[in-house]
Amino acid sequence: MDLLSASGSYAVYGHSPADTVDPRPDQPTLGPRAYKSRQNRPCDFCRARKAACKIAVAPPCALCHSYGRECTFVSGPQKRKRNASQAVSGDGQEPQRRRTDHADSELRLNGAGRLSTSSSPPSNSSPPASRSPVEDVLLDDDIGELNTSSRQVPGAEEAALLQNTDQPQAGRSDLRGHNVNNSVPRVGEFSLAELSTKNAALVGETGEADPYLCRRYRYENDECVLSNIVYRRIPLPPPPSLTDDAELGFAERPVIFMLPDDNLANTGEPRSDNSVLEAAQTELKTMVPTDVGVRLLKLFFRFVYPYFPVLSRTQMLAHDISTVLLDLPLSLQAGIYATSLPFLLYDDILATTIIHSPPPAARLYRICWLAIVQETHTPKLATLQACLLLLQRAPSNKYIMDTPFQWSLTAWTVSLAYLIGLGKSSVGWLGLPKWERRLRGRLWWATYVLDKWSFFGAGTPSHIRNDDFDVELPILAPNAPSTVEGSPCPSTAPVDDNAHDLLAVPSHFYHLVQLTTILSDTFDTYYSIRATSLTTNNFSLSVELAKPLRVRLKTWKDSFTASNSSAENSSPHLDTAIFSTIAPDTLDGNASLVLAYIVTVMALYRALLRAVDNLDSSLETSAYLHAAARSAVLKGAKECGKEAVEFVEDLSRGDVGVWDAFWHSCGFYTVWIQC
Question: What are the coiled-coil residue ranges (predicted)?
Fold first, then answer.
């Protein structure tokens, strides 16, 4: 019988306390149950569970091995209790005692992962043959819907067993998967980002576990344990009763995370010695004391967050910042410090203390990378955040493009994002804090942006396909404050992280994501290997495919210009509208977004010019139409080049408010490639 079909009606039948299993391997037999010798007594855990104690050669048994428990033989057999209906007969002889499945109270697991006792009504059905090892693991009551009703067990033997079970082995997690010294709070919500001793990986459909099989496990508090690994089920909202998707047979894939303990990856290679990491941690504390780190974090939220919101203001600024910094992993600490260094001048204290001898940014990035390599064995959200900040570093050489390490790190970051489940929309996940759901969405789109722009600049395909994620596009933050303390620029106003809408992001990041989707579609339309073969020599097809892309670019330009131009000084030109609204003492990073728009338009015209160059002049069909379209393409390409030159000239005349603002690293690459 299939295990999945049997799981719904499988019942756990108890065995006699003295029954044991012969240590020989199980052989499929027919007929009555094989004789089991009473000389080999079961271990304490199997006796309490009323499960077969299967010892192949030497302890531990199969059940204790699957739970990571010590196989002990301390407690003796439990005394049988008489049922109330079993009265003494008239001749003074006691009737034969019934051997039922629930003659004794079964020891079960309560919500905290400890053994408790519960009573079950007797059953007159005969017990089946002993379960296979696979059934013991998959269909075990401790993994399933646990009986939470408990009562006091009389007797010293049961009390001793309970006391022994409450104390897990040193260095291990208990049956609920929580370390005794660092348990996860279970009050209302559960955070995947704040697991200090575990890492969360989304269970995919082709990996070692299957989400459709995992959903058939029996969960308590949305968790179950299998082979010392906790599986966390994410509750989803109930689907609508009648929808088009339901009629077509579509259903939401089960969202289940595997939460292995970090200690299981201690032997993962390659890795650095602990002494090297400890030395790097000490060096970081020496270069950036806690008080300096607090100010650097504030500078990050003031000048970087509005353009690249990869941190959570709710979690980091709502608590004591010095404590928050100490709790951050080494990689993220170094990444935040290095990213915030260019803005030292805008802090009154740092501008007078360390401005002349700041911490070396190159060394901070090296520490960040050293820690990332170690943390990727047990990746968390903080590891991905550190990778994103490392990708945003300024190029080490001002005159040439960076090394291929940049693109390798981008691919690394994309794989981490998929591993921790960022490609799956978390808007409807129940039990996950709102701040974490907002952060997961922003981190995915930050990864998407860097992936598309980095590989576009490298001339290679992207690692993210539209079919591999379902994260909703972000929306503009409603009622965002117009100014931030110490920063008069409206565009640097951070979004309210307590906003009700889980998709709201700052204005700059919203327009960047929208523009990146257009760039991605442009690449897929013209620059993939198959698209190149179709459009290079087909001018008519190239022009036809460009029409919806040009409409989207015009819509984006109008939206961005309207959101950044004042009512008194509006300009039809994108670059003029940006530079005219920047005050001399203001940092505004929207200039990098203007550059990104120009590069996207140039990418479209490059594809059209490629088709014009390969156009066969001997073709007489629609010669007039081809001539008109060719003239329009050449004119549009000329205007695009003129706009790029004017933008560069405006940059050369720009104030420090443009140059000192936050620039996305991909902007540097594209300006060297395209201009």
Answer: none
